[in-house]
Amino acid sequence: MYIDRRIIFLIIALMLLSSFMNLFSQEGALLGFVLSIPGILIAITFHEFAHAFAADRLGDDTPRRQGRLNLNPFTHLDLFGTIMLIFAGFGWGKPVEINPRNFNRTMSLSKAEAIVAAAGPLMNFIIAIVFEIISCALVKFAPEFYITQVGKIVYLILTSIVTINLGLGIFNLIPLPPLDGSKILSGFLPYNARNWMETHSQIFEIVFIALWIVGILGLIISPLISLAYNGLETLCASIFGLTII
């Protein structure tokens, strides 16, 4: 079954237009949008770079030849995925192309593909942890700075970076094509199950799009992001001896 992606993009465009119109009707929403830009650039750039780096280390030079082995945001941004990350809190970057036949034969091709797929979300979680530590360290060792206007803006930016990276990482772990989670899952399935999943990938894509459009994915992912953020914040605060208000 073939999906006409023009129809998908039209639906996405209408949804995003509605979100964009609501953006200016909510007080403080525009400021939140501006403050989220660093988080979006960091999340997508490092996510896609991690895919490219993992593939390169496993012997596939396709990402290197296509200029994806760098930290230039404009190399990795995808228009619709970036817009979704802005308005929905989860999205995607421009997919990194790989050629599994180039991988080293130290492991099965399916396992190697799973490692490359897992590298992106893993990088997002690492970024989230690093910036949460930075945030807690500033509160601990420079409390006077955080009560200033600039300090409050810095705090909001750091929070946005943490939240967006958690969102992108969790979103991509959904085990449905075309997300990373499906490739990770496929790497650990028996051959027949993996072949069946690949054969019916178009159907899974339809399921993914349907769940996304009706809002079911958002209902599942949003609580997971909040849970992950609260857990990370609590852990970091306990390490630094801070009290969460």
Please name the defining characteristics of this protein:
245 residues, mainly alpha, disordered N terminus
Task: Provide structural commentary.
The N and C termini lie far apart (52 Å). The protein has one domain (5-240). α1 packs parallel to α5. Helix content is 74%, strand content 0%. By secondary structure, the protein is mainly α.
Gyration radius, rounded: 19 Å
The number of E-state strands comes to: 0
Gross morphology: globular
Let me know the average pLDDT: 83
Helix percent reads: over 70%
Low-confidence stretches: 1-14
- Sheet with the most strands, sense and barrel status: none
Would you tell me the structural class of the helices and strands?
Answer: mainly alpha
Looking at how many chains there are and whether they match, the oligomeric state comes to single chain
Percent of sequence in beta strands: under 5%
Q: What is the rounded distance between the termini?
A: 52 Å
Number of helices: 12
Overall tally of domains? 1
How would you spell out the order of helices and strands? HHHHHHHHHHHH
